[in-house]
Amino acid sequence: MKKRTLIGMGLLLVAVIAALCLFMCRRAETYVYVLPADMKAVASVDVAALAKVTGWNADSLQAAGLAGPDGEAVGLDLSKKIYAFVSPEDYVGVTGVVDDAGLLQKFLQKKSEEGVCSAVREQRGFRWTTLSDRWLAAFDDDKWLVMGPAMGKEQDELRYKMLLYLRQDKAESGVGSPLFAELPQQTGPVTAVTRLDVVPQAYVPAKVDPQDVRMAFSLQLEDNRMALHIALLSDHPEIQKRCDEIKALFRPIRGDLAAYDLQRPLLWACVNLDGEKLVEQLRKNPSVRTALIMLNMAIDADMILKSIDGDVAVSVEGLDGNVSIPTRLTARLRNTDFLSHADDWKRPAGGRSDLAIEEQGNDRFYLSMGDYSFYLGVKDRSLYVTNNERLASSALVAPPEGQLASLRKEMEGCYWYVTIDLTRLSQQGSTWLPVAAEGKDAQYVRNLQDICTRLVIKSVEPQQLDVELYAPDGTDLTKELLKWIR
């Protein structure tokens, strides 16, 4: 009898543990049912992974509003992902799991005494508060939801909408939407997927509905590097056609021009082109076609462009305050047949008296046309064009210990690649951060400019883009950025 009792108690204990596990799993799972089925964008933040990568401590969580003034918990379960979304009405929403509703209410009541939010009150099975007069927040024992911004009567409409979201089941929610399905495919502690019509001024071919095109974002954080990966997601035939056109025009970069460019340019951009296909595309634009006709009156612009076959690089030396910024273009050529017409360039075309072309020997030329002048030359089946005499004299000569040569592996295989030296930009007095800051914030901006040394924008596939921010080796860039945000 005693044995059966013990067995029965054991089975009961297992059943209770199993029920608790199922309850906790369901609790963690169902909060995502808050997401709208027709949301325009969705993002996830893995706070635990972010904290591990960034080394967040109590101060960091407090600054983010996720911990109390002494670093104590505020009733939120930060071991589960936080989701953000854009509703069909363009409200922004954020949702997550509640760990202790009593603790969360106590924290919010304290914040209401400080004037941060309104007093917490219960309505229709949820506890409500208003943050900063514009954001409605609701929570129960399982989940929380914040949405806004909304003012006045808008808040009543938003509160009703939030109730509908909070009471949704799986079938009514956005967990079965294409946006949510794409989210797990992205890697990193912060990921997002959005419809293209949410992105301001996004270009979409006329035959494509922006709602049928999605963009995915993922943020990677590692030591001295922060990388944002952006991908265009669509099976639409017109989008695929445009991607194929890009692949036909732009080819993977070889990177060999990096060894022959400026030692430390402010900006350096590179693509790999088939010149004949480039001219075909340029002629489709009426303004560019007109410009080419005018250039052809002076030199064989069409023939020069068609001869390009390989990497093409544009480098900007710096900003010296002059109207003419020292710039140089360098390109690999399939042939130099256009040089056979060089004698014809010296004859003024169309009776133009403002055009002057001076041959400087060794396939080098100086051209001036009104207020514009530039140097053009050919060496070892490579072309250079520049507006600066000094850059012309050093063209296609490898500088000692050039910075770009060490970046060759980084750019190889990309469809296009841009690197900007942020240190030089700051040294020349330019504020590259798009922030209007004063006082203490202005000092943060200056500190961040001192920390960040390089910005890279590159594309490894026509429908993908990577934006990378670098700091010196040994710098924890994420921690420094968090200081600036705070």
For the CA atoms, what is the radius of gyration? 30 Å
How far is the first residue's CA from the last residue's CA?
66 Å
pLDDT averaged residue by residue = 81
- What structural category characterises the helix and strand content? alpha+beta
How much strand? 25-35%
Query: Unreliable stretches, pLDDT < 50, 5 or more residues?
Result: 1-27
Which word captures the global form? elongated
Count of β-strands? 22
**Major sheet attributes:** 22 strands, antiparallel
Relative helix content: 25-40%
Number of helices: 16
Features:
486 residues, alpha+beta, 16 helices, 32% helix, 27% strand, disordered N terminus
Topology:
Blueprint: H1 2-30, E1 41-45, H2 47-54, H3 58-63, E2 76-77, E3 82-86, E4 92-98, H4 101-113, E5 121-123, E6 126-131, E7 135-139, E8 143-148, H5 153-166, H6 178-182, E9 190-195, E10 214-222, E11 225-233, H7 237-249, E12 250-251, E13 267-274, H8 275-282, H9 286-296, H10 301-306, E14 308-316, E15 327-333, H11 342-345, E16 355-359, E17 364-369, E18 372-379, E19 382-386, H12 389-393, H13 408-411, E20 416-421, H14 422-427, H15 439-451, E21 454-459, E22 464-470, H16 477-485
Antiparallel strand pairs: 1-3, 1-9, 2-4, 3-4, 4-8, 5-6, 6-7, 7-8, 9-10, 10-11, 11-22, 12-13, 13-14, 13-20, 14-15, 15-19, 16-17, 17-18, 18-19, 20-21, 21-22
Helix pairs in contact: 15-16
